């Protein structure tokens, strides 16, 4: 008995040790992927501040603000709370939106809401609360509130894309600025040209993926994370050993009382100390919650606190060196090694945000909130490692344009602050909704979270808004253009779905069409793609009338993208037999973090055939006199006769009698639709097997 208990305890301890080792290893890997933007922020925080004759008291107040910003937003909000608001392991503003949609009926896309009783898997994923909260009921009743919530989720994604433009620009530019210290003859245009050349090289290498070099990311960022605080400690001991007295919040109060409006405006620079913290939540799907918490609390947070303390200690004794606040506090003997590490760390930080942008775009395309662009999976081992050629080159042009157009880190910092704090404020609001609607947190605790963070982040927002004329307009312009594209795309897709649902082909109507004497059943297997599940697309009637035929085996395929992160492989393909002989319905389900691209059209055909044969063999619903063996034989014969993939291409005909709003929105949608990619190439369909059927719909 004792021996058995001892063995169980030993086995349990070994498992615990294994989990600890795994989390520590994952925490080490997060340094190169998650925290690149955050841990390199000392490169540009002080240079981005518009200080005027700063004093020792000013620097102590600024350090106190940065310390409490890192502590409250980094430790309390993200590590302590936000990481628990995941959607099946995925993080970010859109993951929270999907989480809210699954626990309350607050989604607004008909194609993404409401699951049929024939899909028990989706009921397990939904887990809707038995008694919706009052706030949940309000959102369910108010279409305006639901639209605002969707807009916030979209805006959070757009701001993250803006982050992907600004982080590479400000990180690399700030690192290369280190050349001007030892070599004053190096002009500012030369620094800008070198920074632009480095970024162009980074973007041109994206198509090869990061798998071959990603093993270097963590060592580079570990070198940066652990060397900068060492320099910080040296600076503290040498210049100002009493720097940590600034942890007392009364230094913040005195700072604002003394500087008044200028102190409030300086918040636009101090907010950059928390740049990249949102990546902790957004990249949650690539690592475990425990690993991110270990990495932040054991290395990132102490590193930043000590590095900023060292910078501040140096600046207290050299009050006018803030414009180059990082490289000036580096001791001469280690200047060049730190320059190399800083440049490499800036490149890794850039790569992290570029990869995150690709991931966000992929999720938006999968959920049909963004026009289809090409998404390539650059790794067979990592599903999240993706690349989009169109997005890549747009980012490259914008990043290089930011460097050459803005020129200095201070101007880019003005733009950067808007992006950083807007994402965090949106996260705070959506976290509060999660607390109320899903977690059912007591109102007192919700208030203890919401009020302090809204006041703090609202103060930051009010300060960075003053920077809009000085560069802050850029992320707003990018975000509004992206949001407009998303809204136009959503509106056009919704109008098409509404038309299809109003004019869908019922089983009775399909029987009448097939009973027409001129309609023949021709040999072959046809995959007919449709956007609706409850009924058949009206393009089918258009097809049968004009072609006067239908294949002996026709499978109506709907690609259904769900507001969940991943769909179990066993639930990927759902099959249902329809009324007429040889006609079936197939639903291919994907979550927003799933790999949509298949390795070839034959993979989809083989997968659907296997599921269809299994469905026929197990089905007890015999709607015809055909035996199971004969039905399977007919299916195999049709497959041998040839496979064809038919996709309807319904276009809007916007007449002169249409309203002005519809004219603008639908014509814009038609333009976007004409330049975006087809959904079929994403599934790898052979070109020679594809057929497109056009149909005009008058609005």
UniProtKB/TrEMBL annotation:
Give the way it sits in the membrane: Multi-pass membrane protein
Annotated Gene Ontology cellular components are:
membrane
Alphabetized GO MF terms: potassium ion transmembrane transporter activity
Enumerate the spans annotated as K+ potassium transporter C-terminal domain.
523-697
Q: Which stretches make up the K+ potassium transporter integral membrane domain?
A: 27-510
Q: Does the keyword Cytoplasm apply?
A: no
Stored Pfam families: K_trans, K_trans_C
Q: Membrane-spanning residues where?
A: 26-47, 59-79, 148-170, 215-237, 263-282, 294-314, 334-354, 391-409, 415-438, 445-466, 472-491
> Which cell locations does it reside in?
Membrane
Q: What is the role of this chain?
A: Potassium transporter.
Q: Which family does it belong to?
A: Belongs to the HAK/KUP transporter (TC 2.A.72.3) family.
What this protein is called in its record is Potassium transporter
């Amino acid at each position: 008995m004792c021996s058995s208990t001892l063995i169980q305890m030993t086995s349990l301890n070994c498992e615990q040790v294994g989990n600890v080792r795994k989390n520590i290893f994952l925490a080490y890997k997060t340094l190169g992927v998650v925290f690149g933007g955050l841990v390199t922020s000392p490169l540009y925080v002080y240079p981005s501040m518009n200080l005027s004759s700063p004093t020792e008291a000013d620097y102590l107040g600024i350090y106190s603000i940065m310390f409490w910003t890192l502590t409250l937003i980094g430790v309390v909000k993200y590590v302590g709370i936000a990481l628990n608001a995941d959607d099946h392991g995925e993080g970010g503003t859109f993951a929270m939106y999907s989480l809210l949609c699954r626990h309350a009926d607050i989604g607004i896309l008909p194609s993404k809401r409401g699951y049929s009783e024939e899909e028990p898997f989706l009921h397990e994923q939904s887990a809707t609360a038995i008694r919706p909260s009052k706030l949940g009921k309000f959102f369910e009743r108010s279409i305006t509130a639901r639209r605002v919530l969707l807009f916030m989720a979209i805006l959070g994604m757009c701001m993250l894309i803006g982050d992907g433009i600004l982080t590479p620009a400000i990180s690399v530019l700030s690192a290369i600025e280190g050349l001007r210290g030892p070599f004053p003859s190096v002009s500012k245009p030369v620094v800008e040209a070198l920074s632009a050349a480095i970024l162009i090289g980074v973007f041109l290498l994206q198509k090869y993926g990061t798998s071959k070099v990603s093993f270097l990311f963590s060592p580079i960022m570990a070198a940066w994370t652990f060397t900068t605080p060492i320099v910080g400690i040296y600076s503290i001991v040498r210049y100002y050993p009493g720097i940590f007295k600034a942890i007392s919040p009364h230094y913040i109060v005195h700072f604002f009382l003394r500087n008044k409006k200028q102190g409030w405006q300086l918040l636009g620079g101090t907010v950059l100390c928390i740049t990249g913290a949102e990546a902790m939540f957004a990249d949650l799907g690539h690592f475990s919650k425990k690993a991110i918490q270990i990495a932040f609390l054991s290395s990132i947070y102490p590193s930043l606190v000590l590095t900023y303390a060292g910078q501040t200690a140096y600046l207290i004794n050299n009050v006018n060196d803030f414009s180059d606040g990082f490289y000036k506090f580096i001791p001469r003997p280690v200047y060049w090694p730190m320059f190399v590490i800083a440049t490499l760390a800036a490149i890794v930080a850039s790569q992290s945000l570029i990869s995150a942008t690709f991931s966000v775009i992929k999720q938006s395309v999968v959920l049909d909130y963004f026009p289809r662009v090409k998404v390539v999976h650059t790794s067979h081992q990592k599903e999240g490692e993706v690349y989009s050629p169109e997005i890549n080159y747009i980012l490259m042009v914008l990043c290089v344009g930011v460097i050459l157009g803005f020129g200095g880190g201070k101007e880019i910092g003005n733009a950067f602050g808007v992006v950083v704090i807007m994402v965090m404020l949106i996260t705070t609001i959506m976290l509060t909704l999660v607390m109320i609607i899903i977690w059912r947190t007591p109102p007192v605790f919700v208030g203890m979270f919401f009020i302090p963070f809204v006041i703090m982040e609202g103060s930051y927002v009010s300060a960075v808004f003053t920077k809009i004329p000085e560069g802050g307009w850029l992320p707003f312009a990018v975000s509004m253009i992206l949001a407009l594209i998303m809204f136009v795309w959503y509106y056009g897709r919704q109008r098409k779905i509404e038309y299809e649902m109003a004019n869908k082909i019922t089983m009775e109507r399909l029987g009448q069409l097939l009973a027409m004497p001129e309609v023949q059943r021709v040999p072959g297997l046809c995959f007919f793609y449709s956007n609706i599940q409850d009924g058949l697309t009206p393009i089918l009637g258009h097809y049968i009338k004009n072609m006067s035929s239908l294949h002996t085996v026709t499978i109506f395929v709907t690609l259904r993208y769900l507001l969940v992160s991943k769909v179990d492989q066993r639930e990927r393909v759902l099959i249902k037999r329809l009324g007429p002989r040889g006609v079936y319905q197939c639903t291919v389900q994907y979550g927003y973090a799933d790999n949509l691209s298949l390795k070839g059209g034959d993979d989809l055909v083989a997968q659907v055939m296997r599921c269809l044969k299994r469905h026929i063999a197990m089905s007890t619903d015999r709607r015809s006199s055909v035996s199971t063996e004969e039905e399977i034989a007919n299916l195999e014969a049709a497959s041998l006769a040839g496979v064809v993939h038919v996709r309807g291409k319904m276009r809007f005909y916007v007449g002169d009698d249409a309203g002005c709003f519809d004219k603008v929105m639908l014509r814009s949608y038609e333009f976007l639709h004409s330049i975006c990619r087809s959904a079929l190439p994403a599934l790898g369909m052979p070109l020679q097997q594809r057929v497109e059927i056009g149909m005009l719909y008058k609005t």
